[in-house]
Amino acid sequence: MVPTVPLPRRPFDPGDPIDPVHQWYENELEWAAVPGSPVRLVTGLRFDVLEVPAEAGFAALRHLGPASPVALHGERMRLLVAAGSAEELPGLLDWLEWGALALDLTAIGAGGSIEAPPPPDPGVAPGLGAPVPSGPETRRGPRGAAHWLQPPEPGREVEPALPTLSALGGGAAGGGVGGAPDLVRLVQTMATQCHRVRLRRACAQPLAVS
Fold first, then answer.
1. Which residue, 107, 69, 73, is CA-closest to 191?
2. How far apart are CA 196 and CA 122, in angstroms?
3. Residue 201 carries which DSSP code?
4. What is residue 21's three-state secondary structure?
């Protein structure tokens, strides 16, 4: 059963089975994680997740601050947002006048989980403030595995960096000192890009011949 409360930080016990991925999330980030193969991160506690096609998600990165975690899993991008955002998404899309369209934009919140990307190698993970490689290997990840495009930072609370409806915005990326990134701008951009991807794919389909 998926735990409903964050797992407590605890010292390493030499008698425990060694799972470095689970230990990193549990002890370094204090995130609720479910051990296994693969390790899974519990959503709805400290963060929710918005998931879109990677080609649509890259256009939305300008609305995030440098500490907002973003992961890639195959052809999908997963952006961490404030807990509770998954429940707000349908109403937000209606308010932005996207509710009537079928968009490839989903939210994972309370009771859900995502595959945990491996911890990033120190000093090599690209940040959103730097140029992000855009080749097939970067967009798909190594052999389609989940990996961090913008990793979380140990020792730093993740909540202040997450897009939220209550953000006032500030700075070119919609975050920084002025507040957390603005969830409305993020969703609007992702919805627009998802719609463009949908139209482009529809146009690429061969016409039916009767």
1. 107
2. 36
3. H
4. helix
Q: How many other C-beta atoms are found inside a 10 Å radius of the C-beta of residue 177?
A: 7
Residue 98 maps to a domain: yes
Residue 126 lies in a domain: no
Whether 156 is in a domain gets the answer yes
> What does 59-123 look like in DSSP terms, one character per residue?
GGGGGS-TTS-EEEETTEEEEEE-TTHHHHHHHHHHHTT-TTS--S-EEE-TT-EEEPPPPPPTT
For the entire predicted model, the pTM comes to: 0.78
Task: Count how many Cα atoms sit within 13 Å of the Cα of residue 17 in the half-sphere of its side chain.
Answer: 5
Terminal C-alpha separation, the chain? 51
The number of distinct structural domains making up the chain is 1
The span from the CA of 184 to the CA of 169, in Å, is 10
Helix (H) or strand (E) holding 150: strand 146-150
What's the pLDDT tens digit per position in 111-167? 999 999 999 876 443 444 333 444 434 444 445 789 999 999 999 899 999 999 875
In a domain, 132, yes or no: no
Task: List, in order, residues 6 or more apart from 177 with CB less than 8 Å away.
Answer: 170, 171
Range of the domain at 168: 20-120+138-202
